[in-house]
Amino acid sequence: MSIKSTIATATAGAARWGLRSVLHRSGGALPGKLGLAIDPELVTHLACLLDASVVITGTNGKTTTTNLIADAVAASGASCVCNRAGNNMETGITGALLEANSDRRRTAGTRRVGVFECDELYTVRILPRLKPTYFVLLNLFRDQLDRYGEIDHTQDVIAQALALSPTTTLIFNADDPLCASIAARVPNPQLPFGIDGAVGTETSHIAESRFCGQCNGALEYDYIQYGQLGAYHCPFCGWERPRLASFASDVRLSRTGYTFDVSMSREGAHDAARLSTKYNGLYMVYNITAAWTAASALGALDDAPSRFQNVLDTYVPTGGRMTRWHVGGREVATDLAKNPVGFDRQIQQIKTAQGRLMAFFLNDAEADGRDVSWIWDVDFERLSATPGIRAFVGGTRAHDLQVRLKYAGIDARIVGQVGEALASVAGEPADETLHVVANYTAFPPVVKELERMAKDGAAANGDTTAVNDASTAVDGTAEHVPTSMVNSADEAAPSSAADAAGTPEAGASAPAALDRPLRIVHLYPDALNLYGDGGNAIVLARRCAWRGIPVRVDDVRMGDELDLSTADVVLIGGGADRDQLAVVNELRSQRDKLASYIEQDGVMLAICGSYQLLGRSYYMDDTRVEGLGVIGAETVRGEGRLTGNVAVASDLFPHKLVGFENHGGRTKLDADETPLGAAVVAGTGNNGDDGFEGCVHRNLIGTYLHGPALSKNPDLADWLLARALERRAHAGDAKAAALVPLAALDDAYEHAANEAAIKLLG
Question: Pick the catalytic residue: 234, 608, 663, 695?
Answer without folding.
Answer: 608
